[in-house]
């Protein structure tokens, strides 16, 4: 069994209820409503925590390109001279001056809770009153790509927090899965795709992390692994203070077409065979690359022990049929699917993904696929 549907699209966001209205009076539009964290609520319904990337309709004005920034007093616009920027990547622009690579955005991301029925077939409510927006200086350029894990009686949500100060991971928690509070920054600069396991291991919280850097050291020529970003492990006594696990994690393999970059996808869930997680691999192509979803199985008692890594046949790939009705809104040059949540749905799993950095996709995959 396998079914795919776009469950939530940019046109379904009501920007009159956007948090950016507190400070930005100029026209904006939804660049993408995508990469949804997903969980099952106590009432049995599903929740998607949708990333809404809200962009200026007119980012360039008076020979300058403008970035949206949160402040404690509201939202502001910062103008950067056009002569000093590179706008090759449609998702961001790069400043040419300076000793280090610096990026800025013409959009700002906030999180919108969308409640679905238990089967994931219909939208029941869009909770604008519970939207999550920047709330600290380390989030002044937005909050992105939520991942939600239910551990015991609490829900934990990690987000990527973006600012000039640092590019970090922050943690929210909830007692009901719908109302979240910001706890703290938990991983520092450029450690993305942090996913908490949906359960503890020998009394510890476990997580997948993916630190980024400007340089990586080479593996020996006869190694099966490709150098570059990798998915690592960390553990914590309280979900706030994390220590890296020394054992290596999931690494790009030379034999895979999607080894340019790997990163976490869905929070690991416990199955009879072990911890199951989906992750993304990127094939180098043009500026952005092709994103696909693969899967891995980890030992239930020692998750740093990899039982199986499936990086040859993609589990989920971008589907142009799904985005055909909204093709006029697409801005990425290459196919992208980015899986961000998975729940048990009986004889199958329901997987939430961002499709084309544009919309939210649900995919039903039979459990037999992971045998």
Chart the SSEs and their pairings.
Elements: E1 2-8, E2 28-40, E3 46-56, E4 60-61, E5 64-71, E6 74-81, E7 85-86, E8 93-95, E9 102-104, E10 107-116, E11 123-126, E12 143-151, E13 154-162, E14 167-174, E15 181-187, E16 191-196, E17 205-211, E18 225-236, E19 243-244, E20 250-253, E21 261-264, E22 269-271, E23 274-283, E24 290-298, E25 306-310, H1 320-323, E26 337-344, E27 348-355, E28 359-366
Antiparallel strand pairs: 1-28, 2-3, 3-10, 4-5, 5-6, 7-8, 8-9, 10-11, 12-13, 13-14, 14-15, 16-17, 17-18, 18-19, 18-20, 21-23, 22-23, 23-24, 24-25, 26-27, 27-28
List keywords for this structure.
mainly beta
The CATH fourth-level homologous superfamily: Glycosyl hydrolase domain, family 43
> What would CATH call the class?
Mainly Beta
Parts with pLDDT < 50 across at least 5 consecutive residues = none
Shape: globular
CATH topology: Tachylectin-2, Chain A
Q: Tally the beta strands.
A: 28
Quaternary status: single chain
**Strand fraction:** over 45%
Please state the second-level CATH architecture.
Answer: 5 Propeller
Query: What is the count of structural domains?
Result: 1
Note the main sheet: 5 strands, antiparallel
In percent, how helical is the residue content? under 10%
Keywords: Glycosidase, Glycosyltransferase, Hydrolase, Transferase
GO molecular function, one term: hydrolase activity, acting on glycosyl bonds
Protein name: Glycosidase
Family: Belongs to the glycosyl hydrolase 130 family.
């Amino acid at each position: 069994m396998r079914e795919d549907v776009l469950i939530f699209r940019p046109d379904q966001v009501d920007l009159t209820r956007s948090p950016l209205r507190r400070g930005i009076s100029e026209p904006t539009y939804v660049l993408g409503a995508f990469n949804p964290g997903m969980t099952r609520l106590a009432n049995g319904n599903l929740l998607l925590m949708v990333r809404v990337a809200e962009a200026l309709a007119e980012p360039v004005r008076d020979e300058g390109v403008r970035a949206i920034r949160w402040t404690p007093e509201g939202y502001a616009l910062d103008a950067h001279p056009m002569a000093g920027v590179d706008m090759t990547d449609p998702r961001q622009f790069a400043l040419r001056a300076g000793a280090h690579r610096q990026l800025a955005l013409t959009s700002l991301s906030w999180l919108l809770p969308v409640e679905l029925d238990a089967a994931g077939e219909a939208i029941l409510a869009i909770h604008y009153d519970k939207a999550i927006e920047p709330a600290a200086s380390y989030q002044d350029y937005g909050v992105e790509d939520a991942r939600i894990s239910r551990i015991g009686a609490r829900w934990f949500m990690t987000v990527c927090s973006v600012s000039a100060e640092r590019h970090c991971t922050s943690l929210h928690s909830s007692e009901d899965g719908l109302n979240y509070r910001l706890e703290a920054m938990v991983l520092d600069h450029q450690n993305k795709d942090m996913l908490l396991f949906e359960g503890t291991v020998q009394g510890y919280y476990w997580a997948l992390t993916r630190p980024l850097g400007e340089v990586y050291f080479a593996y020996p020529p006869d190694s099966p692994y490709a150098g570059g970003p990798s998915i690592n492990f960390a553990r914590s006594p309280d979900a706030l203070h994390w220590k890296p696990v020394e054992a290596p994690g999931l690494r790009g393999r030379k034999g895979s077409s999607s080894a340019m970059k790997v990163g976490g996808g869905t929070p690991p869930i416990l199955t009879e065979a072990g911890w199951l997680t989906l992750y993304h691999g990127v094939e180098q192509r043009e500026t952005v690359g092709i994103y696909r979803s693969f899967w891995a199985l980890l030992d239930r008692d020692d998750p740093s022990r990899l039982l199986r890594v499936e990086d040859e046949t993609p589990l989920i790939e971008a589907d142009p049929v799904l985005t055909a009705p909204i093709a006029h809104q697409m801005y990425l040059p290459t196919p992208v699917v980015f899986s961000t949540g998975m729940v048990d749905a009986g004889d199958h799993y329901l997987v939430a993904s961002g499709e084309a950095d544009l919309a939210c996709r649900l995919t039903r995959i039979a459990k037999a696929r992971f045998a």
